């Protein structure tokens, strides 16, 4: 049995296409981290098909749990806490992980914690880099592009978010347009290494704007038009990839620079500012380097989790679940999986333009 202060946490992540299970302890040690992706299965569809992804989670989740236990040399009865993504995400996959985690917690008579997927990304640097509150977070992934002030656990202030497409979504769509495979982000990054980022003049939406938000739909449209009017060969694909990557990076850096000043005012502090980048797009080395340069120029600290922990994983869910548990206690088993679950649900009051974007507002 674990001591009162020492916990072993299992984290389950099924919000998109990766079935991920990890075991982490309260000393911030990652004992195992298993990720089963569906790339081979989804490549033939050119992207994620929610129903197929959910069925694959059903097939993979038990195997992932067993593998995580074996790698960590743990037994189920030694697990103290079961944490699982409760949203936001593709609802079929979220339901699979939620129901599995609840059932496991009930059978073991252990506490269950429903974790916000975004919170998992937001707190990853506290697990891997051991940073303290407060800090400024650029959360950039396939489904989300936001800048959030992480003030303390559970106290988050969204300073910026995308008005339409996310940066990662733009990478994926561009890769599909170029026909270079899935997932798109890593393929664009790979091709961009041999390309000229200045060859194609792509738009940089919201660049230097006084509106703090992101927008990528215009960039995606412009990219599609250029490709439609081009004869593609390997060199041109590399140049297009490099140009797109630079345009997205320029937008991310510019909006982050804008947010740094807002964050200084919010916490009334000019020194000891910490910038964290997290989410799948944070694994892009070019973008990480540009953000690190921004941090250096702005005389602030820069933190990024290891590349393998930027994409969806169970370790981030385990750690976020632990922080939630020690702050709020366990989650009621009546909890319902959520397709939307914003970290800062009141953001639209502070940023009124969000009220005008779509029937349900901007993406959570």
Instruction: Give me the strand/helix succession.
Output: EEEHHEHEHEEEHHHHEHEHH
With helices defined by DSSP (H or I, 4 residues minimum), what is the helix count?
Answer: 11
Largest sheet: 5 strands, mixed
CATH class of the largest domain: Alpha Beta
Number of strands: 10
Explain what you see.
- The structure is a single chain.
- The chain has 364 residues and is an alpha/beta fold.
- It folds into 2 domains: 150 residues, Nucleotidyltransferase, domain 5, CATH 3.30.420; 172 residues, 2-Layer Sandwich (Nucleotidyltransferase, domain 5), CATH 3.30.420.40.
- The chain is 43% helix and 17% strand.
- It is built from 11 helices and 10 strands.
- The protein has a 5-stranded mixed sheet, sandwiched between helices. It has a 5-stranded mixed sheet with strand order 8-7-6-9-10, sandwiched between helices.
- Strand 4, helix 3 and strand 5 form a beta-alpha-beta unit.
Quick tags:
Nucleotidyltransferase, domain 5; 2 domains; 5-stranded mixed sheet; disordered C terminus; 43% helix; alpha/beta; globular
């Amino acid at each position: 049995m674990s001591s009162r202060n020492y916990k072993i946490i299992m984290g389950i992540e099924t919000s998109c296409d990766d079935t991920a299970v990890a075991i982490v302890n309260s000393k911030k040690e990652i004992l195992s981290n298993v990720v089963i992706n569906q790339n081979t299965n989804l490549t033939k569809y050119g992207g994620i098909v929610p129903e197929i992804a959910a069925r694959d989670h059903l097939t993979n989740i038990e195997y992932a749990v067993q593998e995580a236990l074996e790698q960590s040399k743990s037994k189920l009865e030694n697990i103290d806490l079961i944490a699982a993504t409760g949203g936001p995400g593709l609802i079929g996959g979220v339901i699979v992980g939620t129901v599995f985690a609840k059932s496991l917690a009930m059978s073991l008579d252990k506490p269950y914690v429903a974790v916000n997927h975004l919170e998992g990304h937001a707190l990853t640097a506290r697990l891997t880099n051991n940073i303290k509150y407060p800090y400024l977070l650029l959360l950039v992934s396939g489904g989300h592009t936001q800048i959030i002030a992480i003030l303390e656990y559970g106290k988050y202030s969204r300073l910026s978010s995308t008005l339409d497409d996310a940066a990662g979504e733009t990478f994926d769509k561009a890769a599909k347009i170029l026909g270079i495979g899935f997932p798109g982000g890593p393929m664009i990054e790979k091709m961009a290494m041999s390309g000229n980022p200045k060859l194609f003049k792509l738009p940089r939406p919201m660049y230097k704007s006084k509106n703090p938000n992101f927008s990528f739909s215009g960039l995606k449209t412009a990219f599609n038009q250029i490709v439609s009017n081009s004869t593609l060969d390997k060199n041109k694909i590399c140049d297009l990839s490099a140009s797109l990557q630079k345009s997205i990076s320029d937008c991310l850096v510019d909006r982050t620079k804008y947010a740094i000043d807002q964050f200084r005012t919010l916490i009334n502090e000019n020194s000891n500012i910490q910038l964290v980048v997290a989410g799948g797009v944070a694994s892009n080395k070019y973008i990480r380097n540009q953000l690190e340069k921004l941090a250096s120029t702005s005389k602030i600290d820069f933190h990024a989790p290891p590349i393998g922990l930027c994409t969806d994983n169970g370790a981030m869910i385990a750690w976020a679940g632990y922080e939630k548990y020690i702050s709020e206690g366990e989650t009621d088993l009546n909890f319902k999986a959520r397709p939307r679950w914003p970290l800062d649900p009141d953001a639209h009051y502070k940023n009124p333009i969000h009220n005008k974007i779509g029937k349900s507002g901007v993406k959570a």
